Amino acid sequence: MNTFVTFTALLLVGLASTAPVNDDILHIDNELFPELFVIYTGENDITNLVVPVNSLNFEDEPDDEEAFASATAGIYIFFVEENKGLFVLQNKTATKLLENGNDISAASDDNKAVFFGASDGIYTFNAEKKTAEKYGTLTDNIINIAVANATNEIFILTADHIVYKVTEDGTNKEEVTEVEDAQQIVLDSSNNLYFVNSKKQVHVRLYEDGTVKKIKDLPAHPSSVKLLRPPIVIDDSVPVISGKKAFLAYSNGTAEFAEIILDTKPTAYSVEPSLLVYAAHDKKIYECNILNIVVLGLLQEGLEELSEVKSHFSGQTSEIQNMATKSMKTIRAN
């Protein structure tokens, strides 16, 4: 099962349950991803991909699995295409928002705000006009942005690798001095801040008291490290791609191997919506609805991989249904 379908299914279910679904190590090879799941084809690589799990995309809570499937229609997908800019994709139509946008973030709660980090500060999304509007007064060159849950705080990583906490509607910033040499930042559900330094080491700064811990149990000298925004169904942890291996890093300073090896890696990922997973590969964006495949059984003729995935998870449909329900209730509760 070396396809995008299998990768997304195992990445999501394996990480979200913090345990592999079987005893096999999955290898993702260089086979083509199914064209059935392509929702966008660009001119250059997609380097960033975010699907907000707030009320912008999930305003109403579906009351059953079929309602969940229909609720995913028309959602907003934000991405950065190399040398092209920052875009929003809805119903397979892309709209350019910023020429100089670098990153996207939104809290996992019941507001509709989406923020962009750009080379000249912070912007916010105007859904009615499908435009980006300047937020606050900062003019920093921002390479990463992370919006905290249940607060008015935004964390930014600037091009000179300094992390700031932004408050007062984007007019005030305060350096987060506990975090040094950050190359990437991501927040978990409790606003703990995970970062990678120039030595490719992963650390976590606890939101409660600012304590910084180095994440243990990760490869010592990986060729690369990528932090992912966590699926909404997991707490106090974030996915980490270290070299070719997928891990889950916890706020207590430990990590767990997810038994996935990526011989071919997507250029961007979005696993935040739980059972709706996105990845970018070869200048294309792919969408995989695990619930449709496994629970509703919406199999497409000629795509044998779907039947294989459905069979692989045939004994876990109740857990997957519960995950879909938890995804929506988590958003509603915040």
Please provide a written account of the structure.
- There is one protein chain.
- This protein has 334 residues and is of the alpha+beta class.
- The chain has one domain: 6 Propeller (Neuraminidase).
- Helices cover 16% and strands 37% of the residues.
- The strands form 6 sheets. It has a 5-stranded mixed beta sheet, covered by helices on one side.
- Mean pLDDT is 82; it is low at 13-22, 296-302 and 325-334.
Based on the model shown, name its key terms.
334 residues; alpha+beta; Neuraminidase; five-stranded mixed β-sheet; four-stranded antiparallel β-sheet; 5 helices; 25 strands; globular; disordered C terminus
Could you list the spans in which at least 5 consecutive residues all have pLDDT below 50?
13-22, 296-302, 325-334
Number of strands: 25
Mean pLDDT: 82
Domain count: the total is 1
Percentage of residues in helical conformation:
10-25%
Main beta-sheet strand count, sense and barrel state:
5 strands, mixed
Query: Based on the structure given, which CATH architecture is correct?
Result: 6 Propeller
CATH superfamily: TolB, C-terminal domain
CATH hierarchy, class: Mainly Beta
End-to-end distance, in Å? 36 Å
**Beta-strand content estimate:** 35-45%
Q: Strand order across the biggest sheet? A: 1-22-21-20-19
Structural class: alpha+beta
CATH topology: Neuraminidase
Shape: globular
Task: Please give the count of helices.
Answer: 5
Write the layout of secondary structure elements.
Elements: H1 4-16, E1 26-28, E2 38-41, E3 46-50, H2 65-71, E4 77-81, E5 85-90, E6 93-98, E7 101-105, E8 115-118, E9 121-126, E10 131-135, E11 142-147, E12 154-158, E13 163-167, E14 172-175, E15 182-187, E16 193-197, E17 202-205, E18 212-214, E19 225-227, E20 237-242, E21 245-250, E22 255-262, E23 268-270, E24 276-281, E25 284-289, H3 290-296, H4 304-312, H5 317-333
Parallel strand pairs: 1-22
Antiparallel strand pairs: 2-25, 3-4, 4-5, 5-6, 7-8, 8-9, 9-10, 11-12, 12-13, 13-14, 15-16, 16-17, 17-18, 19-20, 20-21, 21-22, 23-24, 24-25
